[in-house]
Amino acid sequence: MSIHKKTVSFSGVYYGNIDGYYLIIRLYHISVVNTINNIRKGGVKLYKKFAKLLEKNNKTAYRVSKDTGIAQSVLSDWKRGISNPKVDKLKKLSDYFGVPLEYFLEEETTKQ
């Protein structure tokens, strides 16, 4: 087995060949892992705002998907924190629901 190391900022990428199979192992610095997790949480927060709009307007994610052209799988990825909404998709949703784009971008404040 041969392993070659190629270092990329804050992460190590190791390439290897085991019994004819090509292997790539990525090791990430904890700061990179934390950043990825924070990005995922951001997508989930935005989905919660989207879910509130669904409930308020008595719509389903399926109906919004059909009306806006945003794939259901994209909405599901937001919900599960796999990806974050891109601005163009947020713009479509803000237009669809009649809310300003800032609605999705503002931090929610807790009432005390």
Binned strand content: 15-25%
- What is the count of β-strands? 3
The assigned structural class equals: alpha+beta
Molecular shape:
elongated
The overall average pLDDT, rounded, is 74
Following the backbone from N to C, one meets helices and strands in this order, namely EEEHHHHH
Which regions contain 5 or more consecutive residues with pLDDT less than 50? 1-10
Distance between the termini: 60 Å
Order of strands side by side in the largest beta sheet? Answer: 1-2-3
Main beta-sheet annotation: 3 strands, antiparallel
Number of helical regions? 5
How would you summarize what this structure contains?
The chain has 112 residues and is α+β, with helices and mostly antiparallel strands.
Main features:
112 residues; alpha+beta; 3-stranded antiparallel β-sheet; 53% helix
Structure report:
The chain is of the alpha+beta class and 112 residues long. It starts with a strand and ends in a 7-residue tail after the last helix. A 3-stranded antiparallel sheet has the order 1-2-3. Residues 1-10 have low confidence and may be disordered. α1 (30-56) crosses α3 (72-80). β2 and β3 (21-28) form a beta hairpin. 53% of the residues lie in helices and 21% in strands. It contains 5 helices and 3 strands.
